[in-house]
Amino acid sequence: MVGFRVVKTAIAAFAAIMIAHWVGIPSATSAGLLAILGLDTTIKRSVKTVVDRFFASIVGLAVACTLFGLLGFHYWVVPIYILLAFPLIVRASFKGGIVTNAVVVFHVFNAGVISWPVLLTEVELLVIGLGSAMLVNLVYMPNPEEALSKVRSEADQCFSKIFAQFARTLRNPNYLWDGKELIEADKKVAQGLVLAHRSLENQLMKADEFWSVYFYMRKQQLESIQTMAQLVSQVYEQISQAELTAELFDQLERDVRQEHYTGKAAAMLHELEEKFKEMKLPETREEFEVRAAILQLCRELKGYLEMSRRSKAPHHV
Q1: Which residues contact 294 (CB under 8 A, 6 or more apart)?
Q2: Mean pLDDT in the chain?
Q3: φ and ψ at residue 270, rounded to 5 degrees
Q4: How far apart are CA 176 and CA 160, in angstroms?
Q5: Do residues 204 and 249 share a domain?
Q6: What's phi and psi for 140, nearest 5 deg?
């Protein structure tokens, strides 16, 4: 199946070649090659790519004209040009334009003469080729909203399953959980961060950082959940406090899939902490260890919920 970027590349190359041909440039296909080199995955990256390639080529042409004018058009001059021009281009922060620069400089070398018509032709090729690439990227870039919403939903489902596993483990200490939902959640959050970054790169004006904030919050919460998983594994006896905490995770299992922050889990956690204060102290070492793990679990959960309230209060829990 042909990818969307391949289609854009074909359109940009064809447009560049046809414009160059219409203008009357002899090597019109070179404009297509420059258009291919000018395309990138996002609008911001495309703009930077075009700028780098254009100015790298101008710098390279200046060096090439000096060398060819002084030393002549000989093959042994080419490596000298590379040794001088490439480091200069890198130092000028136009590293991404080295290949494009080589294309236009070799055109001048093949022409065998330094003249304003030759140099003007190369500049025209740059403007047409790179301009076509930028125009195609600016005209249409895939909207990542649908993909981001899908990844968010999948990540939320993973979080929901994790909380369900916590509740099940707290009710039955003998239950063995393989933790695969943690691995899947980590993959979804990482995928979401990549898509969110790409979405920002496609916004030239005021950037909407909603998705970046959301998935960064999820990444932080996932770290908290991993700590919770370790604490849940320390609950090796079935006690009443574990059952009450399991009910809290039951609520979280539902809340994490809701469109908006409900605050129900936070309210339940507050009530649970008050109940714990009223309960009798542990009578055995085993009960003390288990209750200590549950207390630490609740504190970690409080931090998790605080991240939700602070970062995404009107949205997801």
Answers
A1: 231, 235, 241, 242, 245
A2: 85
A3: -60, -45
A4: 18
A5: yes
A6: -150, 125
Q: Are 190 and 149 contained in the same domain?
A: yes
Q: How far apart are CA 234 and CA 44, in angstroms?
A: 49
Structural domain tally of the chain? 2
For residue 207, how many other CB atoms are within 10 A of its CB?
13
pLDDT of residue 270: 86
pTM beyond 0.70: no
Same domain, 213 and 127: no
Q: What is the DSSP string of 215-233?
A: HHHHHHHHHHHHHHHHHHT
Per the structure, the complete domain to which residue 98 belongs is given by: 4-139
Output the 3-class SS for 133-181: HHHHHHHCCCCCHHHHHHHHHHHHHHHHHHHHHHHHHHHCCCCCCCCHH
pLDDT tens digits, one per residue of 51-68? 888 999 999 999 999 999
User: How far apart, in whole angstroms, are the C-alpha atoms of residue 83 and residue 269?
Assistant: 67
b/e map of 290-316 (b: 16 or more CB within 10 Å)?
A: bbebbeebbebbeebbeebeebbeebb
130-182 pLDDT, tens digit each: 888 888 877 766 667 788 889 999 999 999 999 999 999 988 888 888 889 99
pLDDT digits 0-9 by tens, 164-178:
999 999 888 888 888
| Residue 168 one-letter amino acid | R
Residue with tokens 């899939």: 257
Q: Are residues 69 and 204 in the same domain?
A: no
